[in-house]
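OP here, attaching both records as promised.
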Amino acid sequence: MFLYQLINFFFVSSKKEEEKSQYDLSLYKRGDLLEVPRTLFTHFGIYLGDNRVAHLIPDILPVISKDKSVISTVVTNNRLLMGVIAKIASVRVDSVSDFGFGSEILVNHMDKVCSQPPLDGDEVARRAEKLMGSVTYSLLWYNCEHFVMYCRYGMAISYQTYQFCTAVRKIVCSRMSSYLTALCGVGVMLYVGCVTPLTLLLTVLISFTIWMAA
């Protein structure tokens, strides 16, 4: 009983505000790809019709509790963050209001970005419905964008992941990084008093590899 109360304390909001949906449902069609820009990332979902959105979201609560009424509540930041760390997620259905969470919703914006033409709306929705349930989550290799891209275009790709990896590569594989790697290597060797041909060779080799990749 105490564990259940503790779960509710951390994961369930104490207040439930009943607000009229600010979204015009007539703008969405079955199979539409919905996109909600956030501060650091963009969240994606597939509109199933009748005010239902299927989306993949990290969530630790299904592992802790079997109470479906508790799990079906809006995923809090704590639940989401712990789900990301544990690599646990689920494809679930929420209302448009819960999915959008007050933010602007873009409709089929990825049609302008993806070179692959979208599938028929019913087929897109059917694919999303077939994938309902628990999935293994990966921030880079299987997130909400991979899910919707597969459903709508037949390709499980993520432009957010590509942009992130490109930015990291530019930072890591830069000439400045090779300079800093060499300086750090020499500094560590001098500090610990371990200047040997092997450590010197490793420092030069790593710095040279980064230099060539830059």
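Record two, same layout:
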Amino acid sequence: MDQLRRFIQWDAKGILEKIRLCLIKKLLPDWEDRRKYHEEFASSTSFHGVHNIVHRRSRARRALWLLVVAGCLAAAAWQICSRLSYYLSWPTTTAVVVQYVEKVKFPAVTFCNLNRFQAHAVSNLKVIFLIWNTVSAILQKFAMEDKYSQELKDFLLGNQNFSIKDFTRQNGFYLNSSTLLECDFFGKPCYPQDFEHVFTEYGNCFTFNHNDLSARRVSLSGRGLHLLFDVQQDKFTDEPALGYTDAGITFVVHPPQELPRFDGLGLLTPVGTHAQVAIRQLKSIIQEYPWGECKPDIKLQYHKIYSTNGCLLECKARYIQDWCGCLPFILPGNGTECDLLKFYKCVYPAVYNIEIKGLCTVGTHNSTCPAPCEETDYPTTVTYSNFGGEKAIKYFSTKLKKSPEYIRQNLVRIEIKYHDLSYKITQQQKALTISELLADVGGQLGLFCGASMITIIELLEYVFTNFCWMCIFLLLKAPEMPQWNNPSQNQPTQKGKKRRIQEC
């Protein structure tokens, strides 16, 4: 065993000696060749100023050129670091472009009656208003007072099979020829069947130009959608104690692909008024993180396009379905519909917990629902006037067979039209792109050092060559492979050391 180990050690020693001899003869040039290589590099490199340091005869001029080159290198390094620091701050600029077109898409408009329920259906069921507020608390913030909670509990215990969805659909506001007296879109008549039913915090609401229809376009500003509503205050009512004290129509303008959002965004038109609404189309384009706050890879399961409102609804639906084992009908998704008892005992507290704990957040890139990369809004300008002069009141009074007082207390006219045939694009852009950063770095190197990409490659080749020579030199100075069996043999003689140093 010892003989085998000794044989391996001697064999390894022989291989190491062969490697050293090969390095000395073929790879490591002598001192004179290395000196010539350095001089040739200094003379031929495209890095300006180096040849002046090497080839000037005067030491003072050499020192001067050394200071000049060092100063230029320092200035270039400072400028490059400054540009890199600016780039890593992810700066952006905002470009605003107004695009004029021949035709522009008309948005969706959702209308609701401020009096949510038919009076005869809720005359003996005041608790219906509380129930609907509990259901619609998913869409808006609603705090139930203690004086109403016991009344609601008693009703739920005695009517466990009661469906507020079916009740609202049948006994809420409806849209037919008696409530929609006139409808005209760009000179063509429209009818109640052109509107799509949707549930909101106002109960039954109706959307014109909803997503399932082909896109409607207008080719002339000042014309659009003209409507005349009869809110029928004698047939529809609400609960003033809960804050619903107005009479009229509320509406919201939104993209056809998105659900209406009334919370803080609805426009109110009281009875006896004529509202003229001028809209503009505003498209916002936001950069992805880290320049902006959007995430382009986020997709919604039950909405065709991403929006923060749709994302919030789907987020709430997921948490409620996990906690309560059911899904409110007012939220998107597929699941078992929550009954009223589940709404009161589980869904309503779950929504409260989502709000308090911040489980569904909006805004920044690391929130549950970050800002959309592309968004379309419709800023509005609304002007109001009293509905109808004396002749108009008499005309509608005769036509509808209603008294002039009824006309003033129930009719609402709304006109929605584009301000002009254009849309504004607000685009967030990168203030410094990769190509611009490379151009800046190249400009600084060229200005202070006369360097380019070829120069950088030359320098890398020069450094790599010297690094290889240094490694070979250190390898030749390294001690021989140790022999563990005979420590005395591991120590080379002083003469051997000198001979190897001389060879190097």
